[in-house]
Design brief:
The protein has 16 helices and 8 strands. An 8-stranded mixed sheet has the order 3-4-2-5-1-6-7-8, with helices on both faces. It is elongated and about 90 Å long.
């Protein structure tokens, strides 16, 4: 399967990789290509560079996805049927939506959202960005509004933790914690009551009088959401292990990035996730380099011309060596790929990505390779 077929057939594509390899730009370019091919696409990103955000017209911290104007998406021809939305993940908004969706009533949601402990919850659960990514992705998939969702994961080795983050939240406040802090644990044994009193005394001593009671009130309110959180976790895992999902690893020619790509591939395989291949970004693997400078020698009329030809010969040699090295890296990535997976080189677009047309060109280059 090539990238063009993947963009047409899949419902969700998750892009993983180290920071600084152009993962967000690749996600945006693939989103542009899929939309121009006729699909209704959402790109979920974490923290795009300012130039990229401006190129896509992305509004910072907006409550809803931003729609790329059709005049921009189809600037080079008639408008097609495809549409492209982009949203920068904002954990605060995602958490609030989750609470409102899973709470039985608006007053129950407000009891959580207005509680002073609510704002500390993200600090108590490791991986707030990963959790926001998981919850947002599950919500958009459940809505069914988009044909394709591209998720740009956080730039760290813990990027795949977004699959585990909802489970960590549920485990953090599991049944034992609820029974300890809940307003009505149902346990009356002297030992259990003594444990509650001791924990409450310690917490009040550390955080101030009344903190233990505040904790009981908050856990009692939040405990009602656990069934929904577990359901979301199971539903998202089903989506991401299905034939409708694909995980792409974005890397670059730097040695550290290549090592990270190997790490991510192993992590995907360990989790049983559908590994779809590699994108070698910022690469010269598809470049032919400069034309042989020796062709200019017959036109050199003086020493200055000869010096210029020698300089060009050196530059051509450097570029040829770089392209050869990058092609070797691409061959390494292609070794032992599972059936249907790909290894593709993305050109080093550089300053061409300063506007939307650059994303169009990159998307075209990736899907025709």
């Amino acid at each position: 399967m090539n990238l063009d077929a993947m963009l047409r057939d899949k419902r969700v594509i998750v892009l993983c990789g180290a920071g600084g390899v152009g993962k967000t730009t690749t996600a945006a370019a693939l989103g542009v290509a899929a939309a121009r091919a006729g699909r209704h696409v959402l790109v979920l990103t974490i923290d795009p560079a300012r130039r990229l955000a401006e190129a896509m017209g992305l509004k910072e911290n907006g409550p809803e996805p931003t729609t790329v104007p059709l005049e921009r998406l189809y600037a080079d021809g008639p408008h097609g049927e495809g549409r492209l939305d982009v949203w920068m993940l904002e954990p605060r908004i995602v958490f609030e939506r989750m609470v409102r969706k899973l709470s039985a009533t608006e007053s129950a949601a407000r009891a959580i959202l207005d509680h002073r402990l609510y704002r500390f919850l993200s600090e108590l659960v490791a991986g707030v960005q990963e959790y926001a990514a998981a919850e947002a992705l599950d919500g958009f998939l459940a809505d069914g509004h988009y044909d394709l969702i591209l998720l740009d994961t956080p730039p760290s080795r813990h990027a795949l933790d977004f699959l585990e983050a909802p489970g960590r939240l549920a485990r953090f406040l599991d049944d034992r914690v609820i029974s300890l802090f809940g307003p009505d644990s149902g346990r009356t044994g002297r030992l259990w009551q003594g444990a509650q009193a001791l924990v409450g005394k310690v917490l009040d001593g550390i955080f101030g009088g009344g903190f233990a009671q505040e904790m009981r009130t908050f856990v009692g309110a939040f405990g009602g959401l656990f069934a929904g959180i577990r359901l979301h976790t199971e539903r998202l895992r089903e989506h991401l292990t299905s034939k409708d999902a694909a995980f792409l690893l974005v890397t670059s020619p730097e040695a550290a990035a290549m090592r990270e790509a190997t790490f991510f591939r192993d992590a995907l395989q360990a989790r049983g996730l559908p590994f779809a291949g590699y994108v070698l970004n910022r690469s010269w693997a598809r470049e032919d380099g400069l034309a042989p400078a020796a062709n200019l020698k017959p036109h050199a009329n003086n020493s200055a011309d000869n010096d210029a030809v020698l300089a060009l010969e050196h530059l051509a040699g450097v570029e040829d060596a770089r392209a050869t090295a990058h092609r070797s890296l691409l061959d390494r990535l292609a070794e032992g790929l599972p059936l249907g997976a790909l290894a593709i080189a993305a050109p080093d677009a550089g300053a061409d990505l300063e506007d939307f047309r650059g994303l169009v060109n990159l998307g075209d280059a990736l899907t025709v390779a």
